[in-house]
Design goal:
The chain is of the alpha/beta class. It is built from 16 helices and 10 strands. The two termini are about 15 Å apart. Bound molecules: zinc ion (ZN).
Length: about 375
């Protein structure tokens, strides 16, 4: 079994993490005070941290999402967004995440008058500051933004156009998030068509709070290149009496086309998309060699980091360093950053990092 220190020392890549799901609890309290946000359930940092975690673990995606009221509540000012984005980069870099795509819905930060573009600009500026500080501390990280539209709202075309405007400044793609049941991807077809017309990238939250029709629409109507979660694809996989598995047409398409699954196991247990880590479809999907990646989703609400998530998966399924590297390379291959940049990170950071860890492990074995 891998130690937490080994996992922390391994280069990691993250494709699915929400800016408004990863605030430091102390920062939420600071920002509420600084910007006059009155509705926090408590201003005690520890109590607030456990409030978020209790609020998230209620086995319903809709209830899970309620906790975001307060993180979004303190993200209504440029300086607040910049601070949260900078801390996000620093926190991920300190966990040795070397590449991250972090998403946010700019329409959530317009209550006090910021425009969509101002929100995205503040987010990018925060990532620039945070990654510069991380590099100075010897923990380099490449930070990219995914711009998200809320699926229950009606601003997705505007948001998609905003994402496209910032593509040369660090935005790498477009997503929709929010309650999935009742808000299928084709509701936002026009936004996805605007993005596709510009040869830009799309990932869609699909197959988390709702099943196969959502995944099917995301892929075949909306042009999703990756699936946010996608765990319900197991509904199209049948276990046969001889111990093998039969894939339906949609599951076969997802595997044949190497559609990346942005899996977030702990978050799925909290939102009720999976009953437990041990029962999580991650295990079956990795054994069937789907293009699986591991992600945090909401580090604050689910009390996770990339390292803690990989630790739990290693404890439950026995991943080892080999599979950790496979998952990391899967994520880098599936990233929306330009090909050259991905290749550089794989060849100059990920592979040497794992080679170094393997050499250190064999030295330990040789001395034992
Ligand atoms: Zn998500």
């Amino acid at each position: 079994m891998l130690t937490l220190d080994t996992i922390r020392g391994a280069p990691k890549a993250l494709l699915h993490d929400h800016l408004d799901g990863g605030l430091r609890p102390a920062t939420v309290v600071d920002l509420a005070r600084e910007f006059g946000y009155q509705r926090l359930p408590t201003t005690d940092v520890d109590e607030l941290a456990s409030w978020f975690r209790r609020g998230a673990d209620r086995k319903s995606l809709e209830l899970y999402l309620e906790t975001f009221e307060h993180t979004v509540g303190v993200l209504q000012d440029r300086d607040a967004i910049m601070r949260v984005a900078a801390e996000c980069a620093e926190d991920l870099a300190a966990d040795r995440v070397v590449y991250a795509e972090v998403r946010y819905a700019p329409e959530l930060s317009t209550e006090k008058g910021l425009t969509l573009d101002e929100v995205v600009e503040a987010n990018l500026e925060g990532f620039r500051l945070g990654s510069a500080r991380a590099a100075e501390a010897g923990q380099p990280i490449v930070m990219k933004v995914l711009v998200t539209a809320m699926r229950q709202a009606a601003r997705s075309v505007e948001v998609a156009e905003c994402a496209i405007r910032w593509r040369d400044a660090g935005v790498v793609g477009f997503d929709i998030a929010g309650p999935e049941a009742g808000y299928r991807p084709t509701r936002h077809l026009e936004a996805f068509e605007a993005v596709r017309k510009e040869n830009f990238h799309i990932t869609i939250h699909a197959g988390e709070g709702f099943g196969l029709p959502s995944i099917w629409e995301a892929l075949q109507f909306c042009g999703a290149e990756r699936l946010g979660h996608g765990v319900r694809i197991v509904d199209d996989i049948t276990a046969l009496p001889d111990g093998s598995y039969s894939l339906g047409r949609l599951a076969a398409f997802v595997r044949d086309r190497r559609v990346p699954l942005e899996m977030c196991p702990t978050s799925n247990v909290h939102s009720g998309a999976a009953t437990s880590i041990a029962e999580h479809p991650f295990d079956l999907l990795r054994r069937l060699r789907f293009r699986v990646t591991v992600n945090t989703d909401n580090r604050l609400m689910s009390n996770v980091s990339m390292s803690s998530e990989l630790k739990v998966l290693d404890e439950t399924f026995g991943l080892g360093l080999g599979e950790l590297e496979w998952l990391t390379i899967n994520a880098m291959k599936s990233a929306f950053a330009p090909f050259d940049e991905r290749l550089r990170i794989i060849n100059e950071v990920v592979k040497p990092g794992y080679a170094h860890l393997r050499a250190a492990e064999s030295r330990v074995v040789a001395h034992a």
